[in-house]
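Data availability (excerpt). The following record was deposited with the supplementary files.
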Amino acid sequence: MEHTHQPGFLRKYLFSTDHKTIGFQYTIAGLFMAAVGGFLAYVFRYNLAYPGENIPLFGDLDAQQYNAFVTCHGMIMVFWVAMPILLSGFGNLLIPTMIGTDDMAFPVLNMLSFWVFVLSIIVLLASFFVPGGAFGGGWTLYPPLSANGYVNPEPGFWSQFFTGGSMMILAVALEIIAMLMGGINFIVTTINKRAKGMTAFRIPLVVWFINIATVIFMFSVGPLIAGAVMLLFDITLGTGFYDPARGGDPILFQHLFWFFGHPEVYVLLLPALGVLGEIIPVFSRKPLFAYKTIIYLALISAVLSVVVWAHHQFIAGIDPRMATFFSIGTILISIPFA
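Predicted structure:
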């Protein structure tokens, strides 16, 4: 008679390779960060409503803290709430179950992706406690403010690596690494581990949308990583990638950021639309109308999403001829979504 060994608490709930457990871990971590981001919003909104007054559960808010709280709230809600819940949480919970397989293609990589995500949370929260406090130059990290406006005043070579700005960039990099590891799992699992007979156009809509969102993320995140590394070099090593006085260009960072930033909107939107596309047909007791058309339109919108980024920069002095191109692209991408 064989006896199956039951995994201990750590193996079962913390260092699990089971996709359902990891999906719950991502969701719980996202909800925890939603509470952190929500608290930051409460503090600076209370300050706006009652300037100069003592804030319950916090105390007095100075100008630097106000900037840091607004900045970190924006970052947290995009990178540490929406992405882990909508992409990683739903992806881990739904993809293997809905395509008829037992687990992800790479379970250990899946576990590792979550713990790298936890590390990114630790780095982000630790940035509140370094000298000078958390980064407060806006969640879009625009130079020159992010490059030299919030540098740690402490002297010394190593101290400049432990500024709020440097730690924010490191935290975002770790979060991106975690999402890339999870994304590899989503795509490989969907392609290689589908149940027999599940052709491409029998895959549930939410699985399609999560995978499309993952591909958009993978294609668009590279320029952001490059831009963030150059920004980190400007902060720590004194380079001048974004300094006009040394031949740099601050508008370059805006292009690199928004090349990722705009597709990111669809990375967050598509999984949510996919969930609606599953729930509404079930509770209306009708099959989804135009299933193939919806998928084709989602693919078209995915392609268009990476060619409209500069409509975020019309106020930054963009060439009017390019503004026309990006305006037309923006109008076109509204068609498939409408």
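Summary of structural features: The mean pLDDT is 91.
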